[in-house]
Design goal:
Elements (H helix, E strand, L loop, with lengths): L6 H10 L2 H9 L11 H9 L1 H5 L4 H5 L3 E2 L2 H6 L3 H7 L13 H21 L6 H22 L12 E4 L12 E3 H18 L12 H15 L2 H12 L26 E3 L15 E2 L1 H5 L7 H5 E3 L5 E3 L13 E2 H14 L3 H13 L15 H15 L6 H10 L6 E5 L2 E5 L12 H7 L7
Antiparallel strand pairs: 1-5, 2-3, 4-8, 5-7, 6-7, 9-10
Helix pairs in contact: 1-8, 3-8, 8-9, 9-10, 9-11, 10-11, 11-12, 12-15, 15-16, 15-17
Organism: Elizabethkingia anophelis
GO cellular component, one term: cell outer membrane
Keywords: Cell outer membrane, Membrane, Signal
Length: 447
């Protein structure tokens, strides 16, 4: 019998209004509703497609790697999408189906599962508990990249973090924590998950020990703790993980990288946005031209539209579905960067070269070398951008690079007007949805 569990929707209703919940309940009115008291029920909650399918789109729209034509900009139905695209200070989220509501709906599913396992004393629950903790930790990590400023150890205690919902009690008020407490919670969830999860992966839509280690490595990278980013990245890579050989892919395929491929460690789709559609989001010519002709990513990731524009086709879904998954390639890049940051330039370059040999036409790749940390990091940052394009990671990278003094300024021209986002601008913490501020009384991001 199909079972649908709805406590996860109540917190969403409290934050964003009841219309979304009402629609959901109307859609599911003919389905039996029940309390999940068994291990199987709670696993089903975590496996729910909408639970793991939609990551945030705000960071990808904001990061500057893609652009839309003036015609497509004018055609979009949502003023909030236009405001997000041009880095406005507020009103950048639609009332329903926005990144905030999607994120906290999933967090509440995790909390519901964790509460159920405890309340009903469900036996043999380590695997399910570990998945819920890893998911919650990864979701808070992702959310921090959207709605918080870049982590800086010197200021994190004073900066605004996220409201940390750690149980499914909807009567608890929403209060923004500090950025330090937000990252502390991310690390706590992921460390606990590592101790509970098996190495063996049932599927790449379920968390595993490797995935939890990978997200830990990503978290420490964002925090600037390169020693631990290296430690946990290496641990993840010590288990059976693989890189795709792009020589084995067919660039003539509509979408050359297939779903459930061996490189994807944890699968997550990107939420929908009118500016990220397959034929709407254009890739900058300068970025496209940065790929050498014998770099197979140039033909695997991109296609022309017949009008002189470059479109992205490198989704790790084998379809139009955008993905912001955790992959083996990202771990190689984290480990390479962390080695260099920790002073071992040679090992960092070795790891980077091992990745890139799988991306170039056989016999044509020439290993990178670097005689300084500065040069090595320049190479890694360049290759990280080229490898992880359209994965929802560039926004966080720009924030941490600017924290360290890179001085990256984003710029877009729309309908004859130039919009800019200076380095370390407060708008790098995207505004919370206005209805969340009104309902909760939480402070909005500083401007």
């Amino acid at each position: 019998m199909k079972k649908t569990i709805i406590p996860m929707l109540l917190f969403l209703g409290a934050l964003t209004g009841i219309s979304g919940c009402k629609d959901f309940l109307e859609e599911k009115s003919d389905t039996q509703l029940t309390t999940p008291t068994t291990l199987k029920d709670n696993q089903a909650l975590l496996d729910h497609y909408r639970m793991v399918s939609d990551g945030n789109f705000s960071s990808e729209v904001s990061a500057g790697d893609v652009y839309v034509t003036d015609a497509d900009f004018q055609m979009t139905l949502y003023d909030e999408d236009k405001r997000l695209y041009t880095w406005q200070e507020d009103r950048v989220s639609k009332e329903n189906g926005n990144d905030w509501s999607n994120c906290y709906q999933k967090i509440n599913i995790c909390n519901t599962v964790l509460d159920n396992l405890k309340t009903y004393r469900i036996k043999d629950s380590d695997y399910v508990k570990g998945q819920a903790l890893a998911l919650r930790g990864s979701l808070y990590l992702e959310a921090a990249q959207v709605w918080c400023l870049a982590y800086d150890k010197k200021t994190a205690e004073k900066e605004l973090g996220l409201p940390l919902r750690l149980d499914s009690d909807m009567n608890q008020p929403s209060v923004r924590s500090s950025l330090q407490k937000t990252y502390d919670q991310v690390l706590d969830d992921l460390h606990k998950a590592v101790g509970l999860l098996p190495v063996q992966r049932v599927s790449n839509s379920r968390m595993s020990k490797i995935a939890a280690l990978g997200f830990l490595s990503r978290a420490y990278l964002y925090m600037g703790d390169y020693k631990n980013a290296l430690l946990y990245g290496k641990q993840a890579l010590s288990y059976p993980v693989d890189l795709l050989d792009f020589n084995a892919l067919n660039p003539g395929d509509e979408y050359p990288v297939k779903e459930r491929n061996k490189e994807t460690i944890f699968d997550l789709g990107m939420g929908g946005n009118s500016f990220l559609r397959a034929n709407t989001a254009k890739i900058s010519r300068a970025l496209y031209d940065s790929y050498e002709n014998n770099d197979l990513r140039k033909s695997i990731y991109f296609r022309g539209d017949g009008l002189g524009n470059i479109l992205f086709k490198g989704n790790y879904s084998g379809s139009t579905v955008r993905t912001m998954h955790l992959g083996t390639d990202e771990l190689y890049l984290i480990v390479a960067e962390s080695y260099v940051r920790e002073g071992d330039i040679e090992k960092g370059m070795d790891i980077l070269n091992a990745l890139l040999r799988t991306r170039w036409k056989k016999g044509y790749y020439k290993d990178y070398t670097a005689n300084s940390q500065e040069k090595a990091l320049e190479i890694i940052f360049q290759e990280r951008r080229k490898e992880l394009i359209f994965r929802g990671l560039r926004w966080a990278d720009i924030k941490r690079y600017n924290r360290d003094g890179a001085g990256i300024v984003l710029s877009r021209e729309v309908l004859g007007k130039t919009y800019t986002l200076p380095a370390n601008d407060l708008r790098y913490a995207i505004a919370l949805p206005q209805q969340v501020i009104v309902l909760s009384g939480m402070p909005q991001n500083k401007r």
